[in-house]
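=== RUN LOG ===
request id: a7f3
mode: sequence -> structure
chains: 1
length: 256
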Amino acid sequence: MPNVHSGLTILGVHGLPEIAEGDDLGMLIARACEAQATPLADGDVLVVTQKIVSKAEGRVLDLSGVEPSARARDFAEAWEKDARAVEVVLREAVRVVRMENGVIITETRHGFVCANSGVDASNVGRGGEDCVVLLPLDPDASARRIRGALREANGADIAVIVSDTFGRPWREGAVNVAIGAAGVEPLLDYRGQADDDGRELRSTVIAVADEIASAAELAMGKLDRAPAAIMRGYPYRKSESGVRSVIRERGKDLFR
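=== RESULT ===
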């Protein structure tokens, strides 16, 4: 088990330009880290927001070409929303969990259950055009590409997490979670180990990748133009499993 008592440092990465399709995120992040005198080092975990990953991968959609369905128009009219955006949410979903009180909860092709299929109209960065940002097609592959580019840029052996902001069904407020990962085991399994009283732990599995993503958000903020952060000092376990292991199997999900 890793020594979780080590000192942790979280550093926001500032100075990144507005990201556009085709940009080399790895190179840009490496340069920004160097410019602020916090170059990436072996053992770091770099957390990158989904928004800039999607922009670099061209996952920005112009709503002007979207024709809403009757279902999207009815919901938009009832809740004063943009019917085109609602249509995109429905198209990005493999299953609609709930459409009620102006909220759409869906399951995405990735297996994520979240609001609006992860479709976001904030901080699109295209001069106020009618555009929305979609989730990356494969966030784990995105994390692997960024990790590889950073390894090539400065040689550091790091892990990469792609994060996004999700709400929670039983608590107010949103938190950052990992939607993609490379180089880090996303779950820390304590099952089979004994607690201080000698009792065997039977169900304790910690979502390490989600906790790293949430902690990193404190150094990024929503309005501080720091779309990436470095966690330094956490002795994570290395893995190439990605975040698929975090998604609960349908047969074990008591709430579907």
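=== NOTES ===
The first strand starts at residue 9 and ends at 13.
The mean pLDDT is 90.
=== END ===
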